[in-house]
Amino acid sequence: GAVPLPMPESPTPAPAADTEEITYEVSTDPYEQTVTAEDGTTLMVIDFQIPHLQAYANGTLIEDPSTPAQEQAMDRVHTFNENFDQWRESNSSEENVSFVKDLYRDMPEMFSEDHMAPLSEELTYTCYRTGTLISIAADYYSYLGGAHPNTVYFAWNYDLDSGMFLTISELAADPQTFTLAVADMIEVQAEEQIASTPELEGRSLSDVYWDNYRETMEKWSSDYAASFDADGLTVIFSTYELASYANGPQEFHFPYAGLDSYWSDSGRAVLGLD
């Protein structure tokens, strides 16, 4: 069903009689697939909650655009939705399905009632709208029969004004300075997290994280899950990206106030900070 976006509280001026007001909404397009063996055994359940953008003109869903503004709105909608269609196609992959069928053929006992329940792939997401930006933070959970399930975090930031996906550092006056400043903040927060974890007592960042951790941190904006919510910026490194499986994902949060000096004027507009 449609999930209305949490919108910032701001009174919307009534459109003049001759203009149309274009608005957007993200709803969920569920994709479900159950993979069964020829004998009817359930092998895998795929359940993706896919974000789906729709545009409205004066409150009416645009299906056949009839004005230039509506055509532009539909272009933005298509760019957004196509991205998630491609994600779904590359992840609800025939590869995984045939892998699971082969597994059942070779090790049927893995699928018995008293063993682990069916293998699964799931995508869930949260959506935050600020200014002209739609920020999607998603987690993709998969259990394909290995030693343990795995969760990978993704984020997408889509600017309705330009009709493009962007990396968060593109909103800064000086993207490189901003990228490195946030990497420094991540490193400080990581040290604090380790210091406050009893079982890691006495260990340093370089004991817990991979040797190339700083290089990974510096790619937070382009290669990892960076998204916005009501409070600020969240950066999540999935399991294995900074540290071993046992250490789990590493999540960092930075309130808007601490980032305020970095945005460009256009970045402030996208974030609705003016």
Structure in words:
26% of the residues are buried. 28% of the residues lie in helices and 31% in strands. It starts with 21 loop residues before the first strand and ends with a helix. It is an alpha+beta fold. The strands form two sheets. Strands 1, 2, 3, 4, 5, 6 and 7 form a seven-stranded mixed β-sheet that branches. The longest helix has 24 residues, at 68-91.
Shape: flat
The biggest sheet amounts to:
7 strands, mixed
Residues in helix, %: 25-40%
Structural class: alpha+beta
On the 0-100 scale, what is the average pLDDT?
91
- Distance from N terminus to C terminus (CA atoms, Å) equals 33 Å
Low-confidence stretches: none
Written as H for each helix and E for each strand, in order along the chain, the element string is: EEEHHEEEEHHHHEEEH
Radius of gyration equals: 22 Å
| Beta-strand residue fraction | 25-35%
Number of helices, counting only DSSP H or I runs of 4 residues or more: 7
The count of DSSP E runs of length 2 or more, i.e. the number of strands, is 10
Furnish the topology, listing elements before pairings.
Layout: E1 22-36, E2 42-57, E3 60-61, H1 68-91, H2 94-106, E4 119-130, E5 133-143, E6 150-159, E7 164-165, H3 175-195, H4 205-208, H5 213-217, H6 220-223, E8 225-228, E9 232-237, E10 250-255, H7 265-270
Parallel strand pairs: 2-4
Antiparallel strand pairs: 1-2, 2-3, 4-5, 5-6, 6-7, 8-9, 9-10
